[in-house]
Amino acid sequence: MACRLVRSPMPPSASGDKPKDEDLAQTGIAAAALMGLAGVLILLGTIAVLARKRRAH
């Protein structure tokens, strides 16, 4: 999954124009991908902890 973020040198507030819909959509997709990745890591960590507890008993 390759995701390339294109960033303008100046933030939208500094340049005075509003961000384009495509930029907002791309930012949203990137944020969703990061949140999904974080969720997967949490899930894997939980499984690892539960497996450890189960093996200890």
TrEMBL record:
Residues 1-22 are annotated as: Disordered. It comes from the Bacteria. Keywords: Membrane, Transmembrane, Transmembrane helix. The chain crosses the membrane at residues 29-51. This is LPXTG cell wall anchor domain-containing protein. It comes from Glutamicibacter soli.
